[in-house]
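Repro:
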Amino acid sequence: MRIQDLKQSFRTLLKTPGFTAVAILSLAMGIGLTTALFSLVDAVLLRPLPFPEAQQLMWLDESREGKPSGGNPQRLHDWQQASSLHAAGGFYGEGAVLLGQGDPVRLQVLRTMGPVLDVLGVRPVLGRGPTIAEQNGEGEAVALLSHATWLRRFNGNPQILAQSLNLGGTLVRVIGILPPDATYPEDVDVWTAAPREIQQTQRSAGFLAQVARLKAGVSLQQAQSELRAMQGRLALQYADTDKGRDVRLTPLLDHITEETRPALLLLFGTVAAVLLVACVNIAGLMLARGMARRREVGVRLALGASRWRVASLFLSESVVVSIAGGALGLLVAAYALAGLKLVLPAEVPRLTTAQIDWRVAGFALLLAVLTSLLSGFIPALHLSRQTVAGSVRQGGAANSGAVRGQGRLGSLLVVAQVAVTAVLMVGAGLLASSFLKLRQAPLGFQPENVLTFQVKLPWGAKEPEIQRVARETLARVGSLPGVRAAGAVDRLPLNGGTQSGQVQVNGADLSPALQQVEAGWRTATDGYFAAAGIAVAAGDLREFRGRSALVNQTFARTFFGEANPIGREIASAPRRPRPGQKVSWFRIVGVVADIRANPTERPMAEAYVPWTETYWPLLAFAVRSDVDAGTLAAAVRRAVKEVDPNQVVEDVKPLETYVAEASSSARVRAGLMGSFSLFGLLLAAIGLYGLLATEVTRRIPEYGVRLALGALPSSLSAAAMRRGLRLAGFGLAFGVALAVALSRVVQGLLFGVDPQDPVTIAAAAVLLLMVAAVACWLPARRAAKVDPIIALRHE
């Protein structure tokens, strides 16, 4: 291929602006969308974490009897002795109100245990890191600020070093500023060691996230084997707490992206399939266009041009289209990436780091090269194989074989387009059906007209202060005009998990299976159930005080079957009770409706105990009212300030927002895949239309003869329609078979929908056939309108 060929191809394409515009725009959309998704895949899944030797960073995961279990300070100390680990550390997050720096503001605090910074390989850009004693929570409390918080809250003032900050009444001295790329864990403002008493928590507690760094030259398998051997010894040494436990190492990047990876790869595969449809579409259009240039090909061959020379001319046109499509595709990618950042859930890790850089531009260039080959090589090779006589003559037997060959190739391309589009349509239909099922799933509460907010006191706050803030806040909020009910709970619906544990029933010997069932243990005020719209199935909420409990329907059904649970006593069962350990019994006074902690999971057994009977400093409030949400939110903030001016009111939003957020990922997946699939459907329709329109144009002389011999125009139209629908049917059959074979790819992303759901598959097939029928009808109508006199004169 020479520069001269490219120049000539450019001039030739300018003579057919319609074809050129469709081809370039199709490829630009395909390349642009694929490039935008690649930039996300690159940022989230492919780029290493911004830490030295990031491949040595591991997530240290613990489980007990097959169920996830957080780490423990004592076991963390055991893992730190492993010879295969360079270092190991743990952390947990909590909020703390920054006081004395203007208006109170809540900061996200990372409480660390051990050398977490050494594990990550992070060095402060200003100041120093903590000493071993400071890491262990000994002596004066010290802290490091994230770079973003240093700039945002303290204007990048280096004088903040050695100053003390008041975090919820506790003074911590700032000793360092972390670098800008120290963004794991995400959204952390302050790093400080956990208090000494927390670092000495007994082995039965599990709340730590744990990270480790492998020693140089040590493989993941070697480290895993050593930790498993250590766990076996610990199970014998500490049978009460460590028996039945397992430990597993996972590359930290894999752990961070574990939940995001399937959906992101699915979307990337979807747009790659759309790009494939675009390439096949361009190939079909170029083939159809080449059929109209048979005489030109014949003249070139007759004048001595080689077949490769003829093929290179057609291939150069594909290169010009692909280069133009790739260049425009980069612009499409930039806008598409900005749009994806807006619609994708904020919890997608490293989403904000995705950008159109040299890696992404190189990927777009590679796509342009591949699309030029995919869309141009086969048509160019096929057109170059014509005979000289068959190409020069406009019609006749000498040309019929080549025409039939080109027709067969065009038909195959259309079938391929329709097949790939059918796969996309079925996938989009399954995700859309799943989203609708998710939205229709019963929640167990009534989120309409409910405003929620949270007030988070620091861990370690005294129980009388927690009770005062909760009691006075509810009293003030409940007296606001228009408020019908107000209550507090440990965690709002669809906003996190629960404290869970096994169950004891006073006077009953539970079966071994029931002894292993874990129930959620919640804390709430009596007004919470009316505020959240949770139905009371049995009992009386007025008795919900003191050592009483409410259980949900799943709890009652699981532990009491058909028997009446009201009046029975229950308790949270320790895994291995100590001799003489006293049991704290709660008397069941009512049964309430099940609430889904997650729309995609069945409700778990849950018991609610009064707020005054347990320690929980994170106050979540629900307020049901007839007042506008904005007006009520302002009144709520004033009420909390009157109770305690140092408290920060957070997450003030309608309860319906939590419902929408719970299904946001499913909505985004369904919306994006549906949009991509419709674009692929449009391309397939263009391809089908182009093939039939070309065929009608080629057969105009034949139609003239048939009409002159008495054929009805409707019979010509019907023949064209049958041919188009037959091709669409073949493609649909192959596509549905392929979609069924690939159904497991989306199975993990579906809720309440069979991945081979016949209704969804049938709906996708009907929609595709309807679009195909429209694409066939337009050229078929043209066949029926052929004037026999003009057609015969043309022949």
